[in-house]
Amino acid sequence: MKTMFGMFLALTLLGGMTTGSAYADDTKTETTEAESLPSVPASLKDKTFVNNAKLNTKAQVYFIYKSRSTCGICVAEAPAIVATHKQMQKAKAAEIVMLNIDVDSKAAAKWARKAKMHFPVVAPEDISGIDFPYSGAQTLPFVVALDPNGKKLGQANGQDVAKFIADWQKYVPDLDKKKGKK
Question: Please, what is the Cα angle at 151 between 146 and 154, to 5 degrees?
């Protein structure tokens, strides 16, 4: 299971990147209840974040976002994703983590700084070996929503990523209770 993500990433990089748009809000998971999934925070604890961001280890949902600075759609959607992350920080219920696939950490850090990304941006050299199940298309950008235990809640790619992340509140159970709503 530990190499599943590494194999996915290698196939994605070797297969070439395409751009497009597809949205899948499926709650099916690729694992069975009997499988033991590593937690998302545990899978990311030893990773290098190029922007020195701090991971919200108590989030109820994690948006694992694959992107790079040379992808036009990725760059176009970045401001909306950054704005959504500010909302998430206030609620402390969700987190965005970018798996940056730029050529190196220097390029990743430059983009994170320029786009004012304050969510964790994993260094390109450090994304292999991430332990939770991760699936996706050969399309950039790509995002998958996971609960803290690694269960897939939904995914989107292409031009639908920012909209999918903007709907983060629907993936957070009990958010209305925390706000005092009934």
Answer: 55
